[in-house]
Design goal:
Blueprint (H helix, E strand, L loop, with lengths): L9 H11 L33 H5 L10 E4 L2 E5 L16 E5 H7 L4 H4 L6 E3 L11 E3 L2 E2 L5 E3 L2 E2 L15 E8 L3 H4 L6 E7 L7 E9 L3 E11 L6 E11 L10 E14 L2 E14 L5 E3 L4 E5 L7 E16 L4 E21 L7 E28 L2 E29 L16 E20 L2 E20 L2 E4 L3 E14 L5 E12 L14 E13 L5 E20 L6 E21 L4 E16 L15 E10 L8 E10 L2 E2 L7 E2 L2 E11 L6 E8 L7 E4 L2 E4 L4 E9 L1
Parallel strand pairs: 7-10
Antiparallel strand pairs: 1-2, 3-9, 4-5, 5-6, 7-8, 9-10, 11-12, 11-39, 12-13, 13-14, 14-15, 15-18, 16-17, 18-19, 19-20, 20-21, 21-22, 22-23, 23-24, 23-25, 25-26, 26-27, 27-28, 28-29, 29-30, 30-31, 31-32, 32-35, 33-34, 35-36, 36-39, 37-38
Keywords: Cell outer membrane, Ion transport, Iron, Iron transport, Membrane, Receptor, Signal, TonB box, Transmembrane, Transmembrane beta strand, Transport
Membrane topology: Multi-pass membrane protein
Pfam families: Plug (PF07715), TonB_dep_Rec_b-barrel (PF00593)
Length: about 725
Amino acid sequence: MARPIPARLRPLRSVLLGSAGVLALLAPAGAQDIVLDTVTIETGEAGVPADGSLSAAGGGVAGASASGFQTQGYVATTTRSATKTDTPLVKVPQSVSVVTEQQLDDRNPQTLADAVGYTPGVRIGAYGLDPRFDAFFIRGLPATYTGIFRDGLREFNIGFSTFDIEPYGLEGLSILKGPAAGLYGSSNAGGIVDLRSKRPTRAAAREVEAQVGSNSRYQLNMDASGPLGQSETAFYRLTGIARDADTDYPFASDDRLMVAPAFTWTPDADTSLTILGELQRSRSGGTFAYVNDGNRVTDVAAGDPSFNDLDQSQGRLGFELERRLDETFTFRQKARVQSLDVYGEYAYAIGAPVNGVVARGSGNVAQTLKGVVSDTQLEAKFDTGPLAHTLLGGVDASYAQYTNLAGYGAAPSLLFAAPRYDIAIATPAYSVASAQDQSQVGLYLQDEVAYDRFTLTLGGRHDWVWTETESGTPDALTAQPEQKDSEFSGRVGLSYLFDSGIAPYASYATAFAPNIGTNSAGEAFVPTTAEQWEAGVKYQVPGWNTLLTAAVFDITQKNGVFFDVNPLTGTNEQVQRGELRSRGFELEATASLAEGLNATLAYAYTDLEIVEGTAATTGNTLSSTPRHTVSLWADYTVQSGPAEGLGLGAGLRYLSSSFGDDENSFKNDARVFIDASAHYDVPQVEGLRIQVNATNIFGEDAQICSSGFCYKEPERNVIGSVRYRF
């Protein structure tokens, strides 16, 4: 199903690739081609000064300006993700959470969902055990498809075609709560996650790590960084992992190979160019579902050992360039090509057991998702009388090409009391096909105006989107009417910073997100729109490396696309809902103290109402959405004495009860998960660390039901590691 780019869209693609120069040579050519993973070029310091991190070992690579991502231990003071400028977080009129590299080191998350699991307002686990997709919600709204960005650029995701995120390749991530379309265009109304790739460091720094864990897990990590030879202007980084692992599911693996090269060039103090790349292949299962019997999940796997595979190859290559033109103007440009190919095959249960027999079907899917994204911006800092301006203007553009082939057939039935999986399943022929091209261009302007202790943030953006869709069978694709969308989105916010470090704020923002993919009838989704009111307060405690935040919000979203599983067939579906309203408040505290204590505390209350749904769901609460979530993580390392270097960490994640379906006919129980870690920096061998991490250490055996289908929660997972930095 490799298709040429429509003639009407070729000029846009030329603009996108031409602005990036070298990217034109790396554009995806065929539906099955693999492109090197995103290379992102970012100006400024390439290393993140996170205590104890490999990036901190080199102090970062000096560039045109600060990197816009400043952290100390668990606490972040600045992230460019919030405003695309270097405005301190305490002055940003929006709730922003940051997971720093030291948090990643201490908790050792294995997926992106694990990495954000201690963030207020971010809900994970709606689909139980499933390492295939990083499914998570922000402020109750699904962020998997339109809420993931990498190095400030959108990462396309749809259906099975979701980029696998390897946490070891990150040096931190930022979570922006609420609409961010005024700057980023197409994005989730509940918020976005911006991933920050590992970058070169000025000083030489290297590490190797071996991990062994539950489910026969064996993993080797390596990370090396520093100057190229004796150069003072060219720096490199090379990160890689190799993993062979099983999972809690009896017929699925969690294998991965990843290599991520990076290069930074700083010819002078005003110029920086960083290239980030990644090439990755992952192997897992086509399904992680178990047979459902009524409103409960059973221990009988619906899949099959001879027909349960998900093989994914992905790549990205991009650049970021920053040039400080003078004391007033700074130019930035970034662009990326990205490509993903996925093949999956699976068996699934058709409804509940009938007379002790489980009927099953089979399916297979082949998808490709390729595209290019770019962002070009000019920042100006100047004064007009008593007003200090940070003015940012830019244009970004994207082009995505998505293809989908699917086939469905029969699979042997199972005896529910004594299931046997010894009959081969034939691969069904492809019977359903779709193809889609989507182009987007956005113009944005933002002004951060400072007067005395006030900061007024005004931003607006206009987007134009063209979507061409074909659907039908592999031999007969029928073109749907071209969909053209145009929308304005923006944000206005005001904050005030007191001498005490307390900063109250209020803001209003709107969102606009065209959706890639089609519904069950083969029709393109209409764009998702939303608006939000938010008020809050931030407190950067003077003399303490501590940040406290609180926020209340009210979001109304129309035409959101959700990832659901059809309870009758067990197959994956995208569903577009009429109108949802999410209201609530969030509390967060992060601290890194000199005595070796690091901690995060989070609480969120979320009331998510289906304002416009079916006759049976209107006015109800969206399924699997708990009203209350609480998380706490603390890590303490002994600073002196005989136990110097010994550290212990513990975490708690609580989710209150929720409804198991949108009809609110039954409930999921409240759940508590306890995580822990122990680590030891061996004093006699500098750079040697021994560490053990465990999640769900008490083996909480629970189920979670979403949209009427129930899943098993992940079981206890223990990983031991030995790391040596030199």
